[in-house]
Amino acid sequence: MNVDPCLFxxxxxxxxxxxxxxxxxxxxxxxxxxxxxxxxxKPTARARLADVDLTGTGLPGVxxxxxxxxxxxxxxxxxxxxxxxxxxxxxxxQTVLVxxxxxxxxxxIYRSLLAELPDPPEICSIIETVDAVENVFDIAAVxxxxxxxxxxxxxxxxAPDESxxxxxxxxxxxxxxxxxxxxxxxxxFELWDTEVILQQCxxxxxxxxxxxxxxxxxxxxxxxxxxxxxxxxxxxxxxxxKDYEADDAGFAVTKERVLAPPFVSKARxxxxxxxxxxxxxx
Length: 282
Description:
Elements: E1 6-11, H1 15-18, E2 27-32, H2 42-51, E3 62-65, H3 72-83, E4 87-88, E5 91-98, H4 104-114, E6 122-127, H5 130-134, H6 136-140, E7 145-148, H7 150-155, H8 162-178, E8 183-185, H9 194-207, E9 211-214, H10 217-227, H11 231-246, E10 252-253, E11 258-259, H12 261-274
Parallel strand pairs: 1-2, 1-9, 2-3, 3-5, 5-6, 6-7, 7-8, 8-9
Antiparallel strand pairs: 4-5, 10-11
């Protein structure tokens, strides 16, 4: 799964009008068939997938958030993706975001249903249920990415317990790093105050998230600013590995850095994530 700093969600039924003001760089476009589309409009949104034209966006592909296959709409979403041969608007569906995941077995079912496509999409599991939080390591082991869904998680609780939400996000981030996956923080509902959005992004980044979802163009800039990775940082990781492998002592401390196995392991893990290399050995 691409490690883009921003996943921009657009209702599939309104993609033409809502995409006009969205920056095209550093985002993954997510066409949404789930929460942003009312039930009565879901058939229209699915039909829109067949005739929308996205070839002029400059994007290499799109992502698609479908409804849960525990619902009739979810089954119809899967059928629509299969009928379109895994393409929407002239672009390949690179990733399918799957909601209401409970266990790793759920992910396997989605993967099996999409396996007959010529180029099956990757699966990004949305961690938005209490059961998913408890089973997140099992889910991460068979997913290509994770995304946090705090709004749905809060809906399962009597009150929005901040300590539990922090625990859930941290547990998700640890599971993602354990299996070398990108991990996306849920979207903010703050649309106007850039400073608030930046603060929320920084909290998510410090927890271990590699990106954040957006639902409004105003959110894209702060998200990209926070989560974009400087190429110079990746160069420093490469240099750390190179210097360590060339140093017979295997340990060195200078004013600028410490050269030791844990820091080299960190460098390799970061390069595996951002350079598109295979997942780090666990």
